[in-house]
Amino acid sequence: MKILITGASGLIGKELQKSFRAKGYELLLASRKPATDPLHVQWSIEDGFSKPEELEGVDVVVHLAGESVNGLRWTDDKKKAIRDSRVLGTRNVVDEISKLKQKPKVLVAASAIGFYGERGDEELTESSSIGQGFLSDVSKEWEAESRRAEDAGIRTVLLRTGIVLSKDGGALASMLLPFKMGVGGVVGSGKQWMSWISLDDEVAIINYVIENENIRGAVNAVSPNPVTNEQFTKTLGEVLYRPTFLPLPEFAVSMLFGEMGDALLLASTKVMPKRLEDAGFEFKYPDLKPAIEHAVE
């Protein structure tokens, strides 16, 4: 099987490469740099593929590329980069693979639980309605571009991923230093729900949806056991053997981080992986403490 990956140098992409190579799959990696070997193809969010004919023979496309939503604040330029990297980047991937003589069998396209927005204690599944706010709006456009691949006869999976646990990147990596220094604590009320996934399970889910032809459409890539911020904080402190008594009040989050803080740190999103559970997927790390222990080892 030949698989094209965009965003292959990111946190998930690197682990995915290891997994695919272990299975003996042939890889084609999209890169901004001019291709210097047959394993790479030049691609950019703005301009697409420099030589789209090199995609002929690809069986699967895993599209992960996108500007990080993390940062100090969402300036207008940052928000434009977040949106364009997802909407325009996905548009040009779908445009090119739809034109191929031999189209890929499946497109696994990244999305995010930001689709659901702030929802309090509501339990959310793939059939839940879209939320409100910047991330929800971007997710709506992002997924709409991915769904166009279905019109071209390509099975399409929209992977709505939660907080990926890894010491090498993402939210957990940014928390480790302050927590190790004993200055970690609850954010806001601590009652907001956090929907998370171990990096190992994220990679396993991508393999699973590729291999199971009956799965298409939205799939929540999250653990079946979401936790509140207070529970997450306590668990991380226990794993690191550090106190967690310094809270970050809601007003301070809004003052320091603005809209980004409200969306990423204070929003409550309790997402359940209903479609994966119904399909029989087995999580390696369904519970938070073992997942964090594994992530930081």
Describe the structure in your own words.
With 297 residues, the chain is α/β, with parallel strands linked by helices. It has one domain (2-296): NAD(P)-binding Rossmann-like Domain (Rossmann fold). It has 9 helices and 14 strands. The chain has helices at 11-22, 76-99, 134-151, 170-180, 199-211, 229-240, 250-266, 274-279, 288-296; strands at 2-6, 26-31, 40-44, 48-49, 60-63, 106-112, 123-124, 155-161, 163-165, 193-194, 196-198, 217-221, 227-228, 270-271. The strands form 4 sheets. The protein has an 8-stranded mixed sheet with strand order 4-3-2-1-5-6-8-12, with helices on both faces. A two-stranded parallel sheet has the order 7-14. Strands 9-11 form a two-stranded parallel sheet. The longest helix is centred in the first third of the chain and has 24 residues, at 76-99. The two termini are 33 Å apart. The model has no long low-confidence stretch (mean pLDDT 95).
